[in-house]
Amino acid sequence: MSTEIAPTDPNVRIRVPRARVAAAADDSQPGSKIETKTVGQVTVADAVMTARRVNVHYGEKHAVKDVSLDIGRNAVIALIGPSGCGKSTFLRCLNRMNDTIDSARVDGSITLDGVDIYEKRQDVVQLRARVGMVFQKPNPFPKSIYENIAYGPRIHGLAANRAELDEVVQTSLAKAGLWEEVKDRLDHPGTGLSGGQQQRLCIARAIAVDPEVILMDEPCSALDPIATARIEDLIDELRQNYAIVIVTHNMQQAARVSQRTAYFHLGELVEVGATNQIFTNPRHRLTEDYITGRFG
Amino acid sequence: MEGHTVRTFDGDILNLRMRVLAMGGLGIDQIQRAVLALVRGDDEAAREVIGRAAQVTGYGQSIEEEIIGLIARRQPVASDLRAILAIGRVATDLERVGNAARKIARLSIELNSSGERSPLPHLYNDVRKMSRLAVSMLRDALDAFDRVDLASAAATAERDLELDGEFQLALRELVTYVMEDPRHLKTTVHTVFLLKALERVGDHARSIAASVPRLARREDAGAAGAEAGAGVATLASLALADHQREPPTESRLG
Fold it and tell me: A202, A220 in Cβ contact below 8 A?
């Protein structure tokens, strides 16, 4: 049995099976049917995370509505949409950052490597090491550059001795493209760096605990164009080793750094597709209107 | 195309389209004057057409500059980007129309100076008929471009077949003529170029008509009868018609 669902745009109608969504682990297989209003392919062949029918309420407010989406390995997915569309809220679901908000209620299932991250047994601290986060404003700890990086590996027991810790600090800073700039002043405070350097320090801090996924919430909005270009370049390099989810208001940035783009509108995931397709030939009218600057 | 949050962007695109329409008006006028100069044997008028040809080219260059500026400043994507590039293509077609008018004017002067009027006086009737057809196609194509009227654009593109038919007919007459008296070969060749120039104007009109679906936003394409596929289908069928038609024309000339 199937039903016609008319999303916000009457021109776009998709036939979807009414069958109940199977367990999340099962429908992470490519090609399996997922009940969704979203235009485009929400699944990917090599998913590190899967979100199925995720709903988020802040008290009375229904902030994220029935969103199903896969996060692919070694790829950047950009979440775009007007303010208040739920993209940041959805991002924060991926490492349970919404847990810190009392009124927030998250339904649906989200898995990391096939395991539900909202299970009671899930260690949230462990989860946030595997799914790291970089925020809009660089937020280094008020400690030395070295300690900013070493803190995570130390509490997660990723380094057995000082030599190993030094090694982790150096590789993390090198991966974040910061090593050459700070290697002679590792004992200086992290807050003394420039904005762009601070943001790369935060990225180095996230990758020091060996995550699988890095979430970025508008990581460049507080940076100048040159620092932004360096972060974008870094994102492309990091893609070799991590899955990256980036929320951005800058559509050119989404077009530049991502391989997939997801467009959110009023809490719904309207359309997802290859970035090139979204920016040249969007299928949903709302996506078209947003990226061509007709509202927002 | 209207309705951007940044309203000056709408103004920019509108301004661009107005310039293309003005350029089209000039192109039509150039063709009409060139054909008139030819039929009347008026060298003065023909030289005027040649003199004004630079204006058409100037329009083309300024439109290209505006498009580069728009892309640099606004970074258009999706339908906006397609529309702006389509407008650029229309300007290119109109530049070639301007070139055709200049060619007709030059040939008119040459035919006059050769002392011999057209090989067949009644061939001028064909020229007039072909020029009327070509100009009306061009006018309708630009009108469809202005109103983003997909149906009218498709109908205009269809009419190119008629013009091609006229061209073939005139060619056959000229072949007969030159076989009767080989001394007229030079004038005949000039006349063939002349007719070919008019036939090309029809091709450009068809090409302009083919650009119209690219100006339509998704909703417009839907309103014209079908899903987004409709515009593509029209373009594809036009392209197909192109392939079917081009070879015979070329082989007859060669």
Answer: no
